[in-house]
Amino acid sequence: MRYRTFGRTGLRVSELVLGAMTFGEQGGVGAPLEECRRILDAYSDAGGNMVDTAINYRGGASEEIVGELLEGRRDRFVLSTKYTVTRDATDPNGGGNHRRNLRLSLETSLRRLRTDHIDVYWVHIWDRHTPIEETMRALDDAVTAGKVLYIGISDAPAWLVSRANTLAEWRGWTPFAGLQIPYSLVNRDAERELLPMADAFGLSVTAWSPLGGGVLSGKYDKDDRANAQHTRLTRADISEHDLNIARAVREVADELGATSAQVALAWTRQRPGVLPMLGARTEAQILDNLRCTDIELTPELRERLEAATGFKPGFPTDFIAQTEQWVLGRAAL
């Protein structure tokens, strides 16, 4: 496992992040406590050091399990969690990115995680009703109080993150160091605005659903019903476009003697500044996924995989590239 600094900070995090959304059996298929222990131990033994959860995962059970499993070794891990999603659907102030919910959510997470600080505290989703100035100042206060060390934002538009970090720079507040987004071969939307923005601001990107919701795991690209057991999707739920991408991944995997999941994760891992998040329900799954670090895709293989997606950045990126010579004349050559 290799390590990278997190955003424009000195914090070192492993190139693969362990997502704990599957920790707990509440609300659907998940992992029981002892299987979670085996998953975390396998990840740690491979050199992984960043665990990501959220106040709402598994109705709070995920944070409680992570807190129990890290007891006695908390300081060896970079612990991250998120707030935004409501703590109480009957309370009009139970969710959102305002100062009140931040404070109450943070205290809840600290208690569940059995710690006195969160290493990376994430805004989970953009809340249209809370001014970003309020959120950034409240987060900065949490940093000043020592309850949060670094901050990040998940699932928000690029313009909002840009405004937030510019305000932080001007006003001396703590800026976002990380961006969390969905990113995989079946979902490359982030390449339009979010990834260029993250690069410009020096943000680390933690990519959730790097297997495209399981589409790229190898379960669905064959006519094999047994392969798709214990999943929420069926083959009929997946578009032919995404199945074609999955087949291209499997072809590359067969050539390399790897699994589809390892190839899909390797593609995401090799994107500059991107840290794939691994979500597993079993020790076998996490062990398979961790082996993606053994795979280095050549430029030719990456090109084959990306060609299968048919992705185009669209306007304005394509238009700007097409008109460069018109704008700059011979200097564009």
Descriptive overview:
The protein is an alpha/beta fold. It has a single domain (3-213, 259-296), classed as Alpha-Beta Barrel (TIM Barrel). It has helices at 33-45, 61-70, 99-113, 132-144, 158-171, 194-201, 240-256, 260-269, 283-290, 299-309, 317-322, 324-328, and strands at residues 3-5, 12-14, 17-19, 50-52, 78-83, 118-123, 148-154, 176-182, 204-208, 274-279. The longest helix is centred in the C-terminal third of the chain and has 17 residues, at 240-256. It is globular, with a radius of gyration of 20 Å. The chain starts with a strand and ends in a 5-residue tail after the last helix.
Features of the shown structure:
TIM Barrel; eight-stranded parallel barrel; 333 residues; two-stranded antiparallel ribbon; 12 helices
Distinct helical segment count: 12
Per DSSP, what share of the residues sits in E-state strands of 2 or more residues? Answer: 5-15%
CATH fold call: TIM Barrel
CATH architecture: Alpha-Beta Barrel
Largest beta-sheet details: 8 strands, parallel, barrel
What is the overall silhouette?
globular
Radius of gyration: 20 Å
Distance between the termini: 41 Å
Mean pLDDT: 94
Q: What is the total number of structural domains?
A: 1
